[in-house]
Amino acid sequence: MRIDIITVSPELIKSPFEHSIMKRAQEKGLAEVHFHNLRDYAINDYGKIDDMQFGGGAGMVLMIEPIDACISKLKAERDYDEIIYMTPDAPTLNQRTANNLSMKENMIILCGHYKGVDQRVRDLFITKEISIGDYVLSGGELGAAVLCDTILRLIPGVLGDETSALTDSFQDDLLSPPVYTRPADYKGHKVPEVLTSGNFPKIEEWRADKAYELTERVRPDLLEE
Ligand code: ADE
């Protein structure tokens, strides 16, 4: 998989890709991530990439020309399955979207900034818009990092134990059951007996019950879907 991230703040987004699972995905040769500074495509020598909005109103808007220049250059080099725009006014990211995107070959992710991008960018170039939640970030960079983390960990071979992604919360629209490790008794607080019983059918049943109970209590909306 190849991901090209277009941003006005490459430094803001690079570091999560240099650690842990996202680093491992790249080291194993299973993912390639490239960062493109929108300012390198500015319309003048002063690095202009944004302007005031027509009709008045606070906040600068990212212009179409630099974005077009960057996207066109990338598209001339290879085909892209998706050109994604990170923005709060879009459908919210969920596990289904992550699963779906983890099967793509090449993707561009455009990070919004300031007041957003000229609507014509969205109309002409973007194939998918994603929000990471009902709150406003200062830019799309952190959202893009979250999106990439959810995608890259799903690529077969990235996680050491492949089954662990499959038992994550949300994978069956259920939250994960509680987990415990040693000691079995911490100052009188004991691990549920079934987990140390060695009775695996019973353990599975307990986990399924707990997952359902937890989901019903804290995220009943997932059960309605
Ligand atoms: N940019 C600003 N807020 C955002 C959000 N909630 N999700 C994705 N991109 C954003």
3D architecture notes:
By secondary structure, the protein is of the alpha/beta class. It has two domains: 2-152, 3-Layer(aba) Sandwich (Alpha/beta knot), CATH 3.40.1280; 169-224, Orthogonal Bundle (Trp Operon Repressor, Chain A). 36% of the residues lie in helices and 16% in strands. The chain is built from nine helices and nine strands. It has a five-stranded parallel beta sheet, with helices on both faces. Helix 4 (95-101) links the parallel strand 5 (82-86) and strand 6. Bound molecules: adenine (ADE). Adenine binds next to loops. Its EC number is 2.1.1.228. It catalyses: guanosine(37) in tRNA + S-adenosyl-L-methionine = N(1)-methylguanosine(37) in tRNA + S-adenosyl-L-homocysteine + H(+). Residues 1-224 form the tRNA methyltransferase TRMD/TRM10-type domain. Specifically methylates guanosine-37 in various tRNAs. It comes from Wenyingzhuangia gilva.
What layout of secondary structure does this protein have?
Layout: E1 2-7, H1 10-14, H2 20-27, E2 32-37, E3 50-52, E4 60-62, H3 64-77, E5 82-86, H4 95-101, E6 106-111, H5 119-124, E7 128-130, H6 141-152, H7 163-166, E8 185-186, E9 189-190, H8 200-218, H9 220-224
Parallel strand pairs: 1-2, 1-6, 5-6, 5-7
Antiparallel strand pairs: 3-4, 8-9
Radius of gyration from CA coordinates: 22 Å
Any idea of the CATH class of the largest domain? Alpha Beta
Largest sheet: 5 strands, parallel
Beta-strand portion reads: 15-25%
Structural domain tally: 2
CATH superfamily of the largest domain: SPOUT methyltransferase, trefoil knot domain
What structural category arises from helix and sheet content?
alpha/beta
Helix content: 25-40%
CATH architecture of the largest domain: 3-Layer(aba) Sandwich
Distinct small molecules bound, one entry per kind: adenine
How many runs of DSSP E, i.e. beta strands?
9
Shape: elongated
Task: Report how far apart the termini are.
Answer: 30 Å
Q: What's the tally of helices?
A: 9
Order of helices and strands: EHHEEEHEHEHEHHEEHH
Please, what is the average pLDDT?
A: 96
Main location: cytoplasm
GO biological process, one term: methylation
Protein name: tRNA (guanine-N(1)-)-methyltransferase
Organism: Wenyingzhuangia gilva
